[in-house]
Amino acid sequence: MSTASSTSQPTPSPLPLRLDSAQKSSETLPLRPKKKSSFRSAKLRLQIEDLSSIGSQVFLSAVNAATVLEDAVRGVQELLYTPDSEIPGTRSITLILRSMPGVAYTTGSSLDNDHKEIHFSTDYIQHIAKDRCREEILGVIRHEVVHCWQWNGHGSAPGGLVEGIADWVRLRSGFVPPHWSRGSSDRWDAGYQHTGYFLDYLEDVYGEGSVMVINGWLYDHRYGEEMWKTLFKKPVEKLWDDYCKSLGKKPVNSQSVSSSDSHVLQRSCDESTSSDTDEIPTPEPGSPSQ
Ligand SMILES: [Zn+2]
User: Fold this and answer.
1) How many A from CA of 190 to the centre of ligand 1?
2) Pseudo-torsion of CA 202, 208, 210, 215, nearest 10°?
3) pLDDT in tens, 3-16
4) Which residue has the higher pLDDT, 110 or 149?
5) Angstrom distance (rounded) from CA 58 to CA 14
6) Rounded to the nearest whole angstrom, what is the distance from the C-alpha of residue 47 to the centroid of ligand 1?
7) Residues having C-beta closer than 5 Å to ion ligand 1
8) Integer angstrom CA distances of residue 112 from 81, 107, 270
9) Percentage of residues in the chain with pLDDT exceeding 70?
10) Which of 73, 124, 165, 253 is the most exposed place for a label (fewest CB within 10 A)?
C-alpha cells in the first residue's frame, strides 16, 4: 500500500498518486476495520464500461464506490438471514455500470450462477433528479443485491413475491422513492413496492423476521398456498384482506388473483442463469427517471 520506494533499485514508473499518508486515508476512504461478520461474504467487483459517461460520473460522485456493495450485502443478509441460516452460495457480485434501456437487472454469469452480475443503467442514473441520486442508487442496488442472496422455492415462487421481497428489503433499508405508496394495488402479488408493503404489514403484525421466514421457507420448499397457511395460519387472500382493512380499504377481488393470474408475473431471478429483469420500460408516475 505504501508508495515508499525501497532502496536504490531502479524505480519502476511512479504509481499514479496513491494515498500516501495516514492522515488522508482516514477521511477519504471509510475503510475502517469492521468487525468480522459471521455472514457470508463474496468477492465484490465494480465494472464501469464508460467512465466518461455522465451516469458513471454521477454514480461516483453520489455514492462511495468502495463500500456501496459491501454495505448492501450486509444490509440484505441482516434482514433475510441469521448467521445460522442456509444462504445461497453466491461467490461474487459484479456491479456493471453501462448504457442500456431500463433501470437494472441481476443475472448469473454464463459460466456459473454463483457469480452474479448486477447491470445498472448509466442512462437511468444520469436522469435521476439531483437531490434523489444517492438514495435512488442505493435503493436500486439494495433491491438487486437481494436477488443475489434470496431463495425462490427452486424457481417456483411467483415473480411478484420475489420482487416484493427485494423491495421490502429496500423499504426496510430506508431507500423509499417518493412515488411509492402503501395500498396502491389490488393484488398481493403485484410485486415490487406493492407486495413489499404487504410483506411489511406481515412483518409488523406477525413479528420481526416474518419475511426472513418466508425466504427461509423458499429454501427447502416449493412455493404453494400451504406456505401462507403454515407460517401465518391463514390463506394469502385472507392476509391480503386483513392488510387492505388495516389501510381502510375494501379488498377488491382478492380471491380471483390467487393462482393462475400470478404466473403472468413470474420472472424469477434464479429460475435459470439469467432471467431477473427489473427493467421498468415506462417509469412510474413521479419516478425520478422522468
Ligand atoms: Zn428485482
Assistant:
1) 13
2) 130
3) 334 444 454 444 43
4) 149
5) 29
6) 20
7) 163, 166, 278
8) 23, 10, 12
9) 73
10) 253
Alpha-helix runs per DSSP H in the chain: 22-28, 54-62, 68-80, 122-126, 133-148, 159-172, 192-206, 210-220, 225-232, 236-246
Please check whether residue 25 is in contact with residue 31, taking contact to mean a CB–CB distance below 8 angstroms. Answer: yes
- Alpha-carbon span 226 to 254, nearest angstrom: 17
Q: Which residues contact 182 (CB under 8 A, 6 or more apart)?
A: 197, 247
CA 263 to ligand 1 centroid distance, Å: 16
Cα(58) to centroid(ligand 1), Å: 22
Ligand 1: centre distance to CA 243 (Å): 23
* Cα separation values, 28 from 46, 64, 91, Å: 19, 10, 28
User: If you measure from the C-alpha of residue 233 to the centroid of ligand 1, how many angstroms do you get, rounded to a whole number?
Assistant: 28
Distance from the alpha carbon of residue 159 to the mean position of ligand 1, in angstroms: 9
Residue 272 carries which side chain, given as an amino acid letter?
S
Q: What is the CA(57)–ligand 1 centre distance, in A? A: 24
| Predicted TM-score (pTM) of this structure | 0.76
pLDDT per residue as tens digits for the range 46-98: 999 999 999 999 999 999 999 999 999 999 999 999 988 999 999 999 999 99
CA of 143 to the centre of ligand 1 (A): 6
Residue 10: all three cell numbers together? 531502479
Alpha helices in 173-224 (DSSP H): 192-206, 210-220
Q: 276 alpha carbon to ligand 1 midpoint, in Å?
A: 6
pLDDT at 71: 96
Three-state SS at 142: helix
CB atoms within 10 A of CB 235: 16
